[in-house]
Specification:
By secondary structure, this protein is of the alpha/beta class. Helix content is 36%, strand content 19%.
Length: 237
């Protein structure tokens, strides 16, 4: 069925998140206690709440979004381009700008969002952070009351599962086995918070996020048995 989807109607995306505060000691007493309770099961006896705080970026209640990268195809005749752009800076502005993009350019019934593990991570994280920042959730992210077949999202992880719901394959592994150029540069997800808070190098994070977005699009092409994008077809805007 994915072969029948018009590529021009898909918005590919990836987000980068970090703990909301640079370190555990910057949390107020109540948030420290809530973090302790939230992470008890994952930490067990191996880590203190403070030692575990570097992972706070994976929970929307304790993390924040620092970059959203999106990409979309423009295909006219035999000319194919993939345009990539990013939103970064203050979180509320990132979310508003992304919201405006969805509301103004990807708001029709035929439009779809696509990420890797996006249904489990990116989409819920975006929706929760919008509520926390008191931003109205755009229709494409508001899934309340929708039946599974009405949800306008594609997920390359889900497509690769082929119904095997216990299976997880990382973006890096999937690109490797499908012959997609590796999206990873000089950092990985575990280093994003350090690069953001200590090195203060948002450009490096944006590059990393955009590479992942391109990789998702490449995997989608592979799943359709189509030619991969070449460098000349990718346009950064």
């Amino acid at each position: 069925m994915i072969e029948k989807i018009n590529l021009n109607n898909i918005l590919f995306l990836d987000i980068e998140t970090v703990p909301e505060e640079e370190n555990f000691n910057l949390l107020d007493a109540e948030m420290k206690s809530l973090w302790d309770l939230k992470t008890q099961y994952q930490r067990k006896e191996e880590f203190t709440p403070e030692e575990f705080y570097d992972r706070a970026g994976i929970w929307a209640e304790f993390g924040k979004i620092i970059c959203i990268s999106v990409g979309y195809f423009t295909i006219k005749g035999d000319i194919r381009n993939f345009r990539v752009t990013s939103f970064f800076g203050e979180e509320k502005k990132i979310l508003r700008d992304f919201n405006n993009l969805l509301s103004n350019h990807f708001n029709q019934p035929q439009h779809l969002l696509c990420g890797h593990n996006a249904k489990e991570f990116d989409i819920p994280f975006l929706a929760r952070r919008m509520i926390i920042n008191q931003i109205a959730i755009p229709d494409k992210l508001n899934l309340f009351g929708k039946k599974p077949w009405e949800i306008p999202h594609l997920d390359t992880l889900e497509l690769w599962k082929f119904g095997d719901y216990k299976h997880f394959t990382s973006l890096k592994l999937l690109t490797k086995i499908l012959g997609v150029p590796s999206p990873k540069g000089d950092i990985d997800g575990s280093q994003v918070a350090h690069v953001f808070y200590v090195e203060k190098d948002i450009d490096r994070i944006v590059t990393y996020c955009e590479k992942d977005t391109i990789a998702v699009a490449q995997i989608f092409l592979r799943l359709r048995l189509e030619d991969l994008l070449i460098e000349e077809e990718i346009i950064h805007v």
